[in-house]
Amino acid sequence: MSTMPAALAEVVSEFREVQGQDKLQLLLEYAGELPPLPAELQEAAMEPVPECQSPLFLHVDATDREHVRLYFSAPEEAPTTRGFAAILAAGLDDQPADDILAVPDDFYTELGLAQLISPLRLRGMSAMLARIKRRLRSA
């Protein structure tokens, strides 16, 4: 069985505690908490995630394999995409590379959003995680 870092497990647990439309509200709350990019990081230098329905860019800094830093950029008018990015930021930023690589590729199904969000949008979250893992494997 693969595992999740404690921070990501906590996010999943938050989503499990709410039902129906409250899950969407929680996702929107996360969207509002997506950390801004550091001044030295430009969106142009980040990797696009074309699988997302809205423009999303990510940057994986694996210089320190014990404290991988993740940065995301998504427009304010794309709250679902921002919410997904914020979930990954909250759950995986500053975690060891091996812990991130151990996260199940479909962990997002445990958030219980499948009834509320289109499969196409959910694939965007899966694509973000896949790109992060690919970056870590090639770093």
From TrEMBL:
InterPro entries: Fe-S_metab-assoc_dom (IPR003808). SUPFAM superfamilies: SufE/NifU. It comes from the Bacteria. Residues 13-134 form the Fe-S metabolism associated domain. Belongs to the SufE family. PANTHER family: SUFE-LIKE PROTEIN 2, CHLOROPLASTIC (PTHR43597:SF5), SULFUR ACCEPTOR PROTEIN CSDE (PTHR43597). This is Fe-S metabolism associated domain protein. It comes from Mycolicibacterium hassiacum (strain DSM 44199 / CIP 105218 / JCM 12690 / 3849) (Mycobacterium hassiacum). The lineage of its organism: Bacteria, Bacillati, Actinomycetota, Actinomycetes, Mycobacteriales.
